[in-house]
Every structure is written in C-alpha cells, then in structure tokens.
Design brief:
Elements lengths: L2 E5 L2 H8 L7 E5 L2 E8 L2 E7 L4 H13 L5 E10 L9 E9 L21 E2 L2 H22 L2 H7 L6 E8 L7 H10 L3 E5 L2 H11 L2 E10 L9 H23 L1
Parallel strand pairs: 1-4, 1-5, 5-10, 6-8, 8-9
Antiparallel strand pairs: 2-3, 3-4, 5-9, 6-7, 6-10
Helix pairs in contact: 1-7, 2-6, 3-7
The protein binds adenine.
C-alpha cells in the first residue's frame, strides 16, 4: 500500500531522497517532482507540497489520483498560538481547520461549504504513530541530529510534543494582532501554518487516511520571519526527517 510523504520543506524531501532505494524514479508533473521508491520497507512517494492551501491541495490530489497513495504523512513548520508552546516543540494535529474560510451568511464561519464540516480529523492511528515517533526522536535522536551549538542558539531544551488543533490559511502570520485574533476566534488552536487543512480536506474527500506534524519555528508575531529560513535548514528538516523515518519503520 503506497504511502505519501509530503513536506512543506523541500529541505526535508532532499534528506529523505538520500535514503530512497536505488530503483527510485522521479516523475515531474505540474511544477512538482514526485519521487517513487522504497523507504523502511514501504513503497513511498516523496514530494514537496509547495506553499499555501491551493498548492498543497493540488499536490495531495495528484498523489491520490495519479500515484494511488492510500495513506499520507505531512510535515512542516508552524507558528505557535498556544502560549506555552516554544520554538522547537512539535505539534501533531488531531483536527485541521481553515482559519480564513468564511462564507457567512451562507455557512458558519470556518465551515467548508457543502461538506458541513469546519474541522477535519486526522486518522487516530497515524497521528498516534507520529506522536510516538516524535517522542522517541526527541529522546533518542535529537542530540545526534542537531548540533549542540544550534540547539543552544535556538534554545531547544527538552522540546515538548503536543497533540491538538492546527489551523491553516493563506497568510504568514507575523504580527501580534493577527495571532491574537486567531487565539480569540479559535481558542483551542495550538499553531498556525499554510497547508495542513487543505491536505486534510483533500484526504477527507478521497477517503485517504492522513496525519500531520509541525515543528514550531516562531511565535506568529512581529519576529516570526527572522529565523524562519535558518530554523528550517538547521533544525526543522532534521526533526521531520527523523520522525518520518521512525514512523515508517514502525508502520
Ligand atoms: N509557518 C511557520 N510559521 C508560520 C506563521 N507564523 N504563519 C503561517 N505559517 C507559518
């Protein structure tokens, strides 16, 4: 049963590519490169989602309709909304919601028109698998995956792993006013990113099981953009790579 490993970080896909078996094939379609090969004994398709909800939904649709994937694991970075989350923590989504969908008065705020849903649940088994893999990664592999100097620079001490609501929208949230507005409107949201709920909706519509993990890269406020690129390169891609390999090995 083919599994999709989709990431909003091209850097993570580059790392996973190194581990694909020798018979791996690349298929370029719609400005995306899909790599089909074997990883930890599974047939997988690796792909960079690109950024934003439309891009992610298009990539997920292609994975499902053209490559026949039956399960999808997705990773990336996110801005923290819950006050106790810090840079380097990991969030695994229980439910995904689009914070910028609003067809009132035809439908309730956040409701996806014609589906009667505002929250798309992740598959419980896959999300528990990602959560266990993240816990084990932090306990056993973090020190070897991220050099001490980098951990010190980003203040990565004992990262915590949380499960909860992830919200997505076509905006990089980089002001306190915007993140506070999200907290007020969606009090149980843990973090914000730009793709997860679009992937979740696509999987829901096609009946494909999915789970999503996000590494907290910033606090979705006025400094959100500052360390974003270096954080992805030096920290987040190592986390996601390590967690995905552990998850595949356990599946
Ligand atoms: N991904 C990582 N940080 C983010 C932020 N602050 N807003 C939206 N997406 C993000």
């Amino acid at each position: 049963m083919r599994i999709a490993i989709m990431s909003a970080m091209s850097e993570e896909i580059d790392m996973l590519l190194q581990e694909l078996g020798p018979d791996a094939e690349m298929h370029s379609r719609g400005m995306r490169d899909y790599y089909v090969g074997e990883l930890a004994g599974h047939e997988v398709v690796l792909v960079f989602s690109r950024w934003g909800k439309v891009a992610a939904a298009a990539t997920a649709t292609h994975l499902i309709t053209e490559f026949g994937v039956k399960r999808l694991l997705f990773s990336g970075a996110a801005g923290a909304l819950a006050p106790d989350l810090k840079v380097g923590d990991i969030v695994v989504g229980t439910e995904l919601l689009q914070h910028d969908i609003d067809a009132r008065p035809l439908f309730k705020e956040f409701e996806t028109p014609l589906l009667g849903l505002s929250r798309f649940p992740a598959d419980p088994d896959l999300r528990r698998l990602l959560t266990r893999s993240a816990i084990d990664f932090v306990k056993e592999d973090l020190e070897s995956s991220v050099p001490a100097s980098v951990r010190a620079r980003f203040g990565l001490e004992a990262p915590s792993i949380r499960q909860g609501v992830i919200v997505s929208g076509d905006r990089f949230i980089s002001s306190h006013a915007d993140s506070q507005s999200l907290r007020d409107r969606i009090p149980d949201a843990l973090c914000v990113e730009m793709e997860g709920a679009a992937v979740a909706q696509t999987c829901f519509e096609y009946g494909v099981d999915f789970a999503i993990m996000r590494v907290i890269s910033d606090s979705a406020d006025d400094t959100a953009h500052i360390d974003f690129v270096t954080f992805i390169d030096e920290v987040a891609r190592n986390y996601a790579h390590g967690v995905m390999l552990r998850a595949l090995a356990e599946l």
